[in-house]
Amino acid sequence: MTQALALRLGNVAKDYRGGVKALRGVSVEIAGGEQVAVVGPSGSGKTTMLTILGTLERPTSGAVEVAGRDAVKASDAELAGLRAHEIGFVFQGFHLQEAMTALENVANGMLYTGAPARERREAARTALERVGLGHRLTHKPSQLSGGERQRVAIARALAKRPVIILADEPTGNLDSKAGQEVIALLHTLAADGATLALITHDEHIAEAFPRRLQMRDGELVGDERQ
Fold first, then answer.
1. N or C: which terminus of the chain carries fewer CB neighbours within 10 A?
2. Where are the domains of the chain?
3. Where are the beta strands (DSSP E) in 164-203?
């Protein structure tokens, strides 16, 4: 049975001031549950594509559908709700609050879901246990290794059980061993049914994905399944 689409871009362009054309007519469809790597040189439009898929930016033109919703016509409030409930983000920088414990960082990431504090803390605890950090709940970021900090960031993305996970160079600040562990973890968690789209410069990481999108000069120039 064909899976419903999780993400769709239809002839999407994104222009910035100064005549910069970050995306030039990109069209792509990603089915629910797919795991996709996005590769390409710096400046190819990878991150812009991901931020538009994540509704963090609007396109200059074109169609964007996220989790079955029209992200172009949606209001800012509707997009904020979509991000709060349906999308989990993992970035190269961990973006953790240094004064907060791992548990507090993850629970704080669910503030905009509207869930009660106790429910958020329980979801945070469960998410941290899933990423192997059940013994680090009360540790602050300065007490954690780089790999552990990224696991906290992943737990924060997963605590609300999103249907879509968007990751932008999640291994960029990690050594090779920690990076491999983070990618393996993302694959395992996405195997539960979430859609995973991940940006990487590392061809070895991309090769482990069933599908690879190649970006260059703001255009989608390759779409390989393996």
1. N
2. 34-58+82-225
3. 164-168, 195-199
Does residue 222 have a pLDDT over 90? Answer: yes
How many helices (H) and strands (E) in the chain?
Answer: 7, 10
Higher-confidence residue of 12 and 92: namely 12
The side-by-side arrangement of strands in the sheet containing 20-31 is 20-31, 5-16, 61-66, 69-70
State yes or no: pLDDT of 226 exceeds 90.
no
Residues 83-100 pLDDT 10s: 999 999 998 888 999 999
Residue 138's Cβ-count burial label (10 Å; 0-12, 13-18, 19+) is exposed
Average pLDDT, the chain: 93
Averaged pLDDT, 8-27: 96
Q: Which CATH class is domain 34-58+82-225?
A: alpha beta
What is the C-alpha separation between 169 and 202, in angstroms, rounded?
9
Kind of pairing, strands 20-31 and 35-39? unpaired
Q: For residue 58, which of 41, 38, 44, 78 has the smallest C-alpha distance?
A: 78
Look up residue 50 and give its two tokens.
């991901």
- Tell me which DSSP letter residue 29 carries: E
Contacts (Cβ under 8 Å, ≥6 apart) of 115: 123
Residue from 96, 121, 99, 95 nearest 110 by CA: 121
Burial of 127 (0-12, 13-18, 19+ CB in 10 A): buried
> What is the rounded CA–CA span in Å between residue 26 and residue 9?
7
